[in-house]
Amino acid sequence: MTRIGLLDSGLGLLGTADALLHLAPHADLILAMDPDFTPYGSLSPEALEARALNSAAVLAEWEPDAIVIACNTASVQALEAVRARYEPEIPVIGTVPAVKMAAGTGQDFAIWATPATTGSAYQQNLIDTFAAEVAVSKVACPGLAEAINEADLVTIDAAIDAALNQMEPGVETIVLGCTHYGLVADRIMAARAGAITLFDSPIPVAKQTLRRIGVEAHGVGPNQPDTGMVIATFASGRLIRLPQSLAAYPAGRRLLTRERAVARTP
What we know:
Distance between the termini: 14 Å
Largest sheet: 6 strands, mixed
Number of helices: 11
CATH architecture of the largest domain: 3-Layer(aba) Sandwich
Structural class: alpha/beta
Radius of gyration: 18 Å
CATH class of the largest domain: Alpha Beta
Mean pLDDT: 92
């Protein structure tokens, strides 16, 4: 049985969890959120690294086949520390915004991210490395990730409108530079009349995770029964049930149907 742990400050890990259950529907998942310390972008690098290591330790108790840092900010600040602690015994996979994929289209695009990520050298390096031949607009989205954590749809829609208003005229491609934002991809699409192309990270990260552990990625079929479950969820180390606020999002609704009925320890 395949078992994969995911960590993030909040609901941003849901997109990657949903992608993993789509590509490997037999896999069991353990989720470690950290609501006591969200948003991660407000923490010092040292504090963020400590929080990521704390969540990784919670996941490691379940002896997972891999740990996924399903957060852009945490991947920047803590990926190497978590890898140093657990690899090679447990592969650790980080999350990178889909800048390379978007640049491959040859079209100008915008990157939506948290204020901390928008101003980071990390994001600028991605742009310089993979998108030097196109124009890239950096769009900060203050409060959007926090509103997604709270399932505050009014604030979510206001933040989406504010981000769209920052985009250059004619730009119709958006890279989602925060894992939370994919949960409201449908609302982003609906907010802009006309075609918008979104590039997000969950499917590429899920595929990379499965490659690292030697599991073939494909959907439900005769040899891939739909048996995988969310077997445990943690909030800053506390065992919890999945919050019902997940029902506000398509990926959240799917995960709620895959939660194990009775929680247990490793």
